[in-house]
Fold this protein.
Amino acid sequence: MQRHYIQDQQSLTELCHSLASSPILAIDTEFVRTRTLYPRLGLLQVCDGEHLALIDPITIDDLSPFWQLLTDPNIVKVLHACSEDLEVFLSAGNCRPVNLIDSQIMMTFLGHGLSLGYAAMVKHYLDIELDKSESRTDWTKRPLSDKQLTYAEADVDYLFQIYPKLLADVEASGWLDACEQESALMIDKKFSPIDEDNLYRNVKLAWKLTPKQLNNLKFLARWRYQKAQIKDQPLSFIAKDHTLLAVAQRAPKSTAAMAAIEGVERLDVRYQGKAMLAILKQAAQVEEQDYPEKLRRLDEYPGYKQTFKKVKHFVADVAAENQLSVESLASKKQINQFLSYFFKLNGAQNNPQEVEVIQSWRKSVLGDKLLSFASRGFRAP
């Protein structure tokens, strides 16, 4: 197999021309995301069995030949645990891949749990112990060491070797279509626009606030996200969750009053206090009838604990019938998502497409049965 370290535009173009006729590409990325909102791409790895290439995005300005491979429907793209890789594709190339399948998802359908690591998969199929000592390295620094390059090559070399075996196992299990749908669902999530007007719902303890206070939080959360985008900084670098919550709750009129509120970070006030006061003034212009509704905690819903247990047992029975793990069929989060929808909490009933257990492959396996079960008051037939 030819190994390439691609550091110039012409070499990238020639490589991608060669790879364009490949039926399968194993792909990985290396990136850094410690002090930024968006991941900073440090390396792209790709292997088709004949070529193994490490592509340097630091020295190449135009990565469009590579992005074109990702959007080619005739090429299967295989990645492992690709949630963050998708964010890289979105932020670095505005590139939404097609015909992609996640090998971690495939392993899930073979009974290996929700988050089997790459090294564990390599050990399972090839009985090779991987050296993961470079996993936390700074991939944006140059030059890269030989050890880093060897580590990066292994991420696609072994993935390409494993994929035919993994594919055969999944096809034999009958779950290949579900794996493809689950991979597509992950892409849909990552590429769905963020609803800035609903970011306040993600702030911890937002359920404690009144509608008026939630309106303040709605404006503050939207402002923080927009500022984080502009500065390319994590949300917490702009202002901490507990600062937003306390400021929304107390609505101070000055930075001195803001700094005196319990739970407010002094640094947040020093750097963002005046901006937050301006945002509170904007929020104050909203009429009361336009305030967000008070959030209800699902675990406070009458009979929640007993209902959750019933649903979990029901899911476990369906999972056993289909030789799936309970978590891969419906996680705790997905069960709660369904219950919020069924109990019509916090507007969830308006978004059935966001209730994962009644969509995609889960609908026929679990969703329709679960809706019937729920309609009987969660009583077994």
Q: What stands out?
A: The longest strand covers residues 24-32. Residues 298-375 form a domain with the DNA polymerase; domain 1 fold (CATH 1.10.150.80).
